[in-house]
Design a protein that fits this description.
This protein folds into four domains: 98 residues, mini-chromosome maintenance (MCM) complex, chain A, domain 1 (2-Layer Sandwich); 150 residues, Nucleic acid-binding proteins (OB fold (Dihydrolipoamide Acetyltransferase, E2P)), CATH 2.40.50.140; 238 residues, P-loop containing nucleotide triphosphate hydrolases (Rossmann fold, 3-Layer(aba) Sandwich); 67 residues, Arc Repressor Mutant, subunit A (Orthogonal Bundle). The radius of gyration is 33 Å and the shape is globular. The longest helix is centred in the N-terminal third of the chain and has 19 residues. The chain contains 24 helices and 26 strands. By secondary structure, it is an alpha/beta fold.
C-alpha cells in the first residue's frame, strides 16, 4: 500500500472499503454497501478497529483532521456504492454519510478541553435531555428578481445568502424558496457524566450534542450512550452580544450507540463467575451476602436483608396484552435520628449496578421524575432521578422533607414504573423501572411506640405509603448490652480505620454478584405457590374483625417479589419453598413492627392505609353521637358541647380533640360559624 502522502485520500479510503476482509475472507464493507442498497440505507458504519489495522496513520488522521477525512471517506463510499448501483448512489449522494464507531480510547467528559477542538473523539455519558425533532436546512435555494435559482451551502446557524446570481450576476434582492431548499433531521441531546464517575463535591460535566440524519431519536432521557463526534467551539450568543470572545463547546455527533438498555455496567469475568457460583453454593450463602450489606453498620439484620432483595429485585412479568407486573421492590425505613438510615441508603446506591442517591430536602417533582422545558425556543425533555436510574435503584433520603406536591410524582412510578408528562399539548411517557429505597424521620423527631405508623409520619400520603412492599421502623432504645456492643464497634472502626469485622464478601465482588444475579428469572414452584397462598389467605381471614381492613392483593405481590428476589440471590432457576418461607418471615417482621395497632396490640393492615380498626370504630361512635346531637333538622352543633359528649362516652380529653380534628381532616364536618360545626351533607 502506498503512503498517504503519495495518494489521494479518497482513493486510500476506497481501497480500504474494497479490500478489508474478516477472518473468513469475506469482504466486510462491500457486503455492507450491498446491504445499504437493498435496505435503502444512507449511512455506512465503519469500525475504527478495522481502520487501525489497515493503517495506523490513516486512523490517526481521522482523529486529528476529521472534517477533511470524513468528506474523503464519503466520496470513497459513493464511488464504492456507484460500482454496485449507480442509480441508487446518485439518488442518495447528498445524504450519504460515513459513521465511525468503536474508537477504543474514550475520553471522560470532564477531560474534554480546548485541546480536543475540531478533533474526533469518543465519549460515554448519560442522556439527560432530548429536544424535539426539527428540520435543519443544509442547502438554501435563493431566487433572484429574474427568477434564476441559486443554491448556497449552509454550515452555520445563521442563514447565508449567495454572493451573486450564477446566471445574471444579481448581487442582492434574493428571496428564499423554502420548498426547493434541502433539509435534514436535526436534534439536540444533552449528555452528562455518569453518576458513579462524578467526583464528590463537584457539578456534573455536560455537553450538548447535535444529531443529524438517521441517528436522531435513537437515545432517550435515561439512556447510557457512547457517542463519536467532533468537538466544536461556537459563539455564546446568550451573553447578549453578537461578537464575543466567549465560546461554548458542543459535539457534532457522527455515531451514537445506546448502552443503557440493560444494567451491564459491571464487567463480570469468567473467574468472577466461578467465584460467584462458589459463594452461592455454600450453605451460609444468604447470611454471608446479607452480612456484606453496609458492613460498617452494626445490626439492622432485617433492613439489610430487605436492601439485598431490593438490589437484586424480583422478576418483571410481561403479559400478552402488554400489561407488565412490577418486579422491583420498594422499601421504606422510618426511624429515629442517628440510626444509620442514610448510610445504608448511600451504600445501596454505591453497590447497585446502577444507583442514584438523592435527598428530599433539595429535590423537586421535575428533578424526581421528568419535565418538559423550553430553551432557546426549543422544547427539551429532561429526565429526573427515577428515569436516570431506570433498571436500577433510586435512594431517596429525607423522604418526609419533600414538598407534598413533589412527592406525588412518584405515585405512577412506584406501581406502573413509568413517568407520564402531559403538558401544554405535549404527551410523553418515559420508562422508570426503578426500585425505590426511601428513608424518613417521624413527625416529632422520635418514633412514638404508643402511636401507629401513619400518626408517626403524617406527612406521607396514604396512597404513596401503600406502594411500599416493605416498611421497617428503626428505633433508638437504650439497652445496656446492645449499647456497649455498638460503642465498641464504632470505636473499633475509628481506631483501626477499617471495618471492625471484614465483610464476608468484599465490595467489588458483591457489586459483581448483584449484577450477575439480576439477570436471572426464576419461576415459582408449586410448593412455593402453596405456601404464599396459604399465608395470604390466613391474613385475609384474620382481618375479618368489624371495621378492620384486610390485606390487599398488593401484599401477595410483595411476597412474590421478595421470594423471587431471594431465589435470584442464591442463583436459583426456581423459587423454592425455603424462599417463600423466608419472604413470609420478613413480612412477619414488618407486620410485628409496623402493622400492629398500638392500642389493641392486634395485627391490622388498615394501619398502612391510615384506617386502623380501632380508629374506624371510634369514628363510627363519634359520628353516631354527632347525628344524635344535630337532630333531624341537622342543626349546627357547638364544638365545645360535642367534645364534652365525646368525653362522657369513652374518649379522653386528648382523644376527643384528636377525633374532632380527624373529622375536619376527613371532610366529614366543617365550621359553619365560630364555635359551631355542621356535618357535610351527602
Amino acid at each position: 500500500m502506498a503512503t498517504l502522502a503519495s495518494r489521494k485520500l479518497s482513493e486510500v479510503f476506497e481501497d480500504f472499503l474494497k479490500s478489508v476482509t474478516d477472518k473468513s475472507g469475506k469482504y466486510v464493507y462491500r457486503a455492507k454497501v450491498s446491504e445499504m442498497i437493498s435496505e435503502e440505507g444512507k449511512s455506512l458504519s465503519v469500525d475504527f478497529g478495522d481502520i487501525l489495522r489497515y493503517s495506523g496513520d490513516l486512523a490517526n488522521r481521522i482523529l486529528v483532521e476529521p472534517d477533511a477525512s470524513l468528506e474523503a471517506f464519503r466520496t470513497a463510499a459513493y464511488e464504492t456504492m456507484r460500482s454496485e448501483s449507480a442509480m441508487y448512489a446518485d439518488r442518495v449522494k447528498r445524504e450519504l454519510t460515513v459513521r465511525i464507531r468503536a474508537i477504543p480510547d474514550q475520553v471522560p467528559l470532564r477531560r474534554v478541553d480546548t485541546s480536543y477542538l475540531d478533533r474526533m473523539l469518543s465519549v460515554a455519558g448519560m442522556v439527560v435531555r432530548t429536544s424535539e425533532l426539527r428540520p435543519l436546512m443544509t442547502q438554501a435555494a435563493w431566487v433572484c428578481q429574474s427568477g434564476h435559482l441559486t443554491y448556497e451551502e449552509q454550515d452555520d446557524l445563521m442563514l447565508k445568502r449567495p454572493p451573486r446570481c450564477e446566471l445574471c450576476g444579481e448581487l442582492r434582492n434574493f428571496e428564499l424558496d423554502r420548498k426547493k431548499s434541502r433539509y435534514v433531521d436535526f436534534q439536540v441531546v444533552r449528555i452528562q457524566e455518569l453518576p458513579e464517575e462524578l467526583p464528590p463535591g463537584q457539578l456534573p460535566q455536560f455537553f450538548d450534542v447535535n444529531l443529524e440524519g438517521d441517528i436522531v431519536n435513537q437515545a432517550r432521557p435515561g439512556d447510557r450512550v457512547v457517542m463519536t463526534g467532533i468537538v466544536r467551539a461556537v459563539p455564546d450568543y446568550s451573553v447578549g452580544q453578537v461578537r464575543t470572545r466567549l465560546f461554548r463547546s458542543q459535539i457534532d455527533c457522527n455515531h451514537v450507540e445506546v448502552k443503557g438498555k440493560e444494567p451491564e455496567m459491571v464487567q463480570v469475568t469468567k473467574e468472577d463467575e466461578d467465584l460467584i457460583k462458589s459463594i452461592a453454593s455454600s450453605s451460609d450463602a444468604y447470611a454471608r451476602l446479607t452480612g456484606s450489606i453496609a458492613p460498617a453498620i452494626m445490626g439492622h439484620a432485617s433492613e439489610k436483608e430487605a436492601i439485598l432483595l431490593l438490589l437484586v429485585g424480583g422478576t418483571t412479568t410481561a403479559l400478552p396484552d402488554g400489561t407488565k407486573l412490577r418486579g422491583d421492590l420498594n422499601v421504606l425505613f422510618v426511624g429515629d435520628p442517628g440510626t444509620a438510615k442514610s448510610e445504608m441508603l448511600k451504600f445501596a446506591a454505591q453497590v447497585a449496578p446502577r444507583g442514584i442517591f438523592a435527598s428530599g430536602r433539595g429535590t423537586t417533582a421535575a428533578g424526581l421524575s421528568a419535565a418538559v422545558i423550553r430553551e432557546k425556543n426549543v422544547l427539551m425533555l429532561e429526565a429526573g432521578v427515577v428515569v436516570l436510574a431506570d433498571q436500577g435503584i433510586a435512594c431517596i433520603d429525607e423522604f418526609d422533607k419533600m414538598n407534598a406536591t413533589d412527592r406525588t410524582a412518584l405515585h405512577e412510578q412506584m406501581e406502573q414504573q413509568t413517568i407520564t408528562i402531559a403538558k401544554g399539548g405535549i404527551y410523553a411517557s418515559l420508562n422508570a423501572r426503578t426500585a425505590i429505597l426511601a428513608a424518613c424521620n417521624p413527625v416529632l423527631g422520635r418514633y412514638n411506640s404508643f402511636q401507629n405508623l401513619t400518626e408517626n409520619i403524617e406527612t406521607l400520603p396514604i396512597p404513596l405509603l401503600t406502594r411500599f412492599d416493605l416498611i421497617f421502623v428503626i428505633k433508638d432504645q437504650p439497652a445496656p448490652a446492645e449499647d456497649e456492643k455498638l460503642a465498641s464497634h464504632i470505636l473499633s472502626v475509628h481506631e483501626r480505620r477499617a471495618y471492625a469485622t471484614p465483610p464476608p464478601v468484599e465490595f467489588s465482588l458483591l457489586k459483581k454478584y448483584i449484577s450477575y444475579a439480576k439477570k436471572l428469572s426464576p419461576s415459582l414452584t408449586k410448593e412455593a405457590t402453596d405456601r404464599l397462598k396459604e399465608y395470604y389467605l390466613d391474613l385475609r381471614r384474620s382481618g375479618g374483625d368489624e371495621g378492620q381492613i384486610p390485606p390487599t392483593p398488593r401484599t401477595l405481590e410483595s411476597l412474590i417479589r421478595a421470594a423471587t428476589a431471594r431465589a435470584k440471590v442464591l442463583l436459583r432457576e426456581e423459587v423454592t419453598e425455603d424462599d417463600a418461607l423466608a419472604a413470609i418471615a420478613l413480612m412477619n417482621r414488618m407486620v410485628e413492627d409496623v402493622l400492629t395497632d398500638a392500642s389493641t396490640k392486634k395485627t391490622d393492615f388498615g394501619i398502612q392505609m391510615g384506617k386502623p380498626a380501632g380508629e374506624t370504630r371510634n369514628l363510627r361512635t363519634a359520628m353516631e353521637l354527632f347525628k344524635t346531637m344535630e337532630g333531624p333538622d341537622k342543626k349546627p352543633v357547638e364544638r365545645k358541647a360535642f367534645k364534652e359528649e365525646l368525653m362522657k362516652s369513652k374518649f379522653s380529653d386528648e382523644d376527643a380533640e384528636k377525633m374532632i380534628r380527624t373529622m375536619f381532616r376527613e371532610g366529614i364536618v366543617y365550621e359553619s360559624k365560630p364555635g359551631f360545626i355542621r356535618r357535610v351533607s351527602g
